[in-house]
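Need residues for this backbone.
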């Protein structure tokens, strides 16, 4: 049995860059500690957009260029990236079907649990946690609320409540 920790989009643009918040900055030390003390496999996702971002549907609805491939904002926060042992899973959408597929392929390794931390609770964390729950319905899915931040504190809390309603364990 193995535990999996998924570190969602802990990138400069979401922490203190184009879409950064004080709440995102505040979780960095806790996420670092969680990674350092985690007994299991640690996977990272990386929000990835191209230079034509503003021409995409997401870019039309959120006209703030962010996480453009190969920019400083796209990089995973350096103190967290230094702990990374595998290549990040680049994702062009909120939820990563590549991540869900990788988790489902590891089903034979008997995943004990999957824990999510990162940004943003109300967009990418919830999307990936629900994909994991759909892909592996009998594996406990956990979200460490102290190591997540949303676009706003209110949307963070709303997302936690929505995930809880979907039988995702919320550790506060």
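Answer:
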């Amino acid at each position: 049995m193995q535990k999996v920790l998924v570190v969602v989009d802990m990138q400069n643009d979401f922490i203190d860059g184009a879409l950064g918040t004080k709440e995102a900055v505040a979780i960095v030390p806790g996420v670092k500690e969680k990674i350092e003390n985690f007994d299991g496999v640690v996977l990272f996702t990386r929000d990835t957009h191209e230079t034509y971002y503003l021409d995409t549907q997401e870019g039309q609805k959120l006209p703030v260029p962010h996480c453009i491939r190969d920019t400083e904002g796209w990089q995973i926060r350096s103190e967290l990236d230094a702990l990374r042992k595998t290549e990040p899973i680049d994702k062009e959408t909120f939820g990563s079907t590549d991540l869900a597929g990788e988790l489902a392929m590891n089903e034979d390794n008997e995943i004990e649990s999957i824990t999510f931390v990162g940004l943003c609770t109300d967009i990418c964390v919830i999307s990936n946690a629900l994909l994991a729950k759909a892909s592996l319905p009998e594996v406990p899915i956990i979200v460490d609320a102290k190591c997540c931040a949303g676009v706003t504190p209110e949307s963070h809390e709303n997302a936690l409540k929505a995930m809880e309603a979907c039988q995702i364990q919320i550790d506060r």
